[in-house]
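Justification of computing resources. Each target in the renewal requires a structure prediction run like the one illustrated here; the chain below, 277 residues long, is used simply to show the kind of job we budget for.
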Amino acid sequence: MKTMEDLAFSTENIQRIAMVENCFGVSGKCLTKEGRILVGEGVLKKECRKKVKLRVFFLFSDILVYGNIVVMNKKYNNQHIIPLEGLHIESLEDQNEMQNRWMIKSERKSFVVSAPTPFQKKEWMQHIEYCVKHLMIKPGNTLTKEHAAPWIPDHATDICMRCTSTKFNFIERRHHCRYCGYVVCGQCSKQNFLFPSMSKKPQRICLLCYKLLSADERKQTLERITPMKETVHHDVYNEHSSGDEESIKGNEDDLFKDWQANEDINLSVVLRSSFHN
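Resulting structure tokens:
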């Protein structure tokens, strides 16, 4: 029986990875890496913000890669790479014409996909879980505490999911909060917040999430400076800090009471999906 190391350096594995790189062309990133194995590949339905689309997926021993299909087995574009470290998958119930669904959650991006048959869904999920577990036993790898919120599809609502008064049209466009995934109007999503695991640039978020994140940030700042101030001036600090922390906690409790939520699809069968041992 071949070991993981044998598979990684096998001619077949090296050639298959090179073929995937060639299909993405110059627009894709280099996928060749020492020890990396191409575990499986296939086409799945991906629930995007506007509609369901077919996407080609490649499961490697340490990353999940997907992209748009231009010419099947010949040309792909819009490559996305998701590290498997900390990745989490969750089985979902069938919905309308979308069957054999599951959710892929990562720090950078979370979304829903579906396979053509229950068996292929099981195969995909088992292979992903195996790769994640095998990766996490290596020294230095840690579990991800938070995952990016999956975006609620545009068609799920005609009004802003925060203010519930703004109706979407050609002028009033839909936006998505990068923290909760809600569909919101421009007025309710003027704020930006930096998520280092997601992007180097601040991301658009809704007002409620901005307030929650800002309150949490202030609380963490207070917790960091408390030991310093107690050392310098214990009595004076206690007199001024207790009220601040109570007001922050009260503000958070009020904000959490406002949390809300909401969620058609039409497409041909999946082209193909296969795993290679």
